[in-house]
Amino acid sequence: MPFSLPTLPYASDALAPLMSKETIDYHYGRHLQTYIDKVNALVAGTEFEELPLDEVVRRSEGGLYNNAAQAWNHIFFFDSLTPQSKPVGTGLHALILRDFGSVEAFREQLCQRVLTHFASGWVWLIMDCDGKLAIVSTQDAQSMLADGVTPLLTIDLWEHAYYIDHRNRRADYFEAVWQLIDWEKVENRLNLNLFDGL
Ligand code: MN
After folding, report:
1. What is the 3-state secondary structure (H, E, C) of the chain?
2. What is the pLDDT at residue 193?
3. Structural domains of the chain ordered from first start
4. Distance from the CA of 90 to the center of ligand 1, in angstroms?
5. How far is the CA of 96 from the centre of ligand 1 (A)?
6. Does position 16 have pLDDT exceeding 60, yes or no?
7. What is the pLDDT of residue 192?
8. Which end of the chain is more exposed for a tag (fewer CB within 10 A), N or C?
9. If you measure from the C-alpha of residue 15 to the centroid of ligand 1, how many angstroms do you get, rounded to a whole number?
10. Which residues contact 95 (CB under 8 A, 6 or more apart)?
11. 160 C-alpha to ligand 1 centroid (Å)
């Protein structure tokens, strides 16, 4: 089965004005579609053809890795947003307090990583191998799908993610994304990880 563009969990204009319909149409509808099309072209007739996307990311390298990781990262990013963002839930809140001191301190560290990351890439909140929350950034397409690491949240740092709505102002983009994060989904990813570890 070729990979196809998943349905967004919200309408294409639902995140406006924080993220415009034009950005969703280009970023989700065109950039992500292009990565998916390239993955389909590259896996056709190979051992990767029947694998789920995360397995393609884990097992591939080179051009296939770049396109598969970009596809996976984008799906994960857009699935982490909601027009009805609520405060961080109690389980995740406790871990943020333990590992960052406060939600505000966590937000500041995340923001600093977004602002200081050079060129294209992704910033992540992960649970690391030791069960600690950590903020990391990756270059270009690189994903955080790795053994023992649970990606909880990612933010796209490629210019195409923010140039339509914010031009070169990455800080404004971060402020907008922060208001759109679906913390319930982020926390559910944590629960899945804990369940897997039992
Ligand atoms: Mn992107």
Report:
1. CCCCCCCCCCCCCCCCCCCCHHHHHHHHHHHHHHHHHHHHHHHCCCCCCCCCHHHHHHHCCHHHHHHHHHHHHHHHHHHCECCCCCCCCHHHHHHHHHHHCCHHHHHHHHHHHHHHCCCCEEEEEEECCCCCEEEEEEECCCCCCECCEEEEEEEECCHHHHHHHHCCCHHHHHHHHHCCECHHHHHHHHHHHHHHCC
2. 60
3. 21-79 (1.10.287.990), 90-192 (3.55.40.20)
4. 30
5. 27
6. yes
7. 67
8. C
9. 16
10. 133, 190
11. 6
Compute, in angstroms, the gap from residue 163 CA to the centroid of ligand 1: 11
CA of 94 to the centre of ligand 1 (A): 31
How confident is the model over 67-115, as pLDDT tens digits?
999 999 999 999 999 999 999 999 999 999 999 999 999 999 999 999 9
**Hunting for tokens 């933010």 — which residue is that?**
155
One-letter amino acid identity for 76? Answer: F
Q: Give 115 Cα–ligand 1 centroid separation in angstroms.
A: 16
Q: What single-letter amino acid sits at 35?
A: Y
Tokens 């500041």 belong to which residue? Answer: 108
Residue 17: asked if its preceding bond is cis (omega within 30°), the reply is yes
| Encoded tokens for 69 | 């990781």
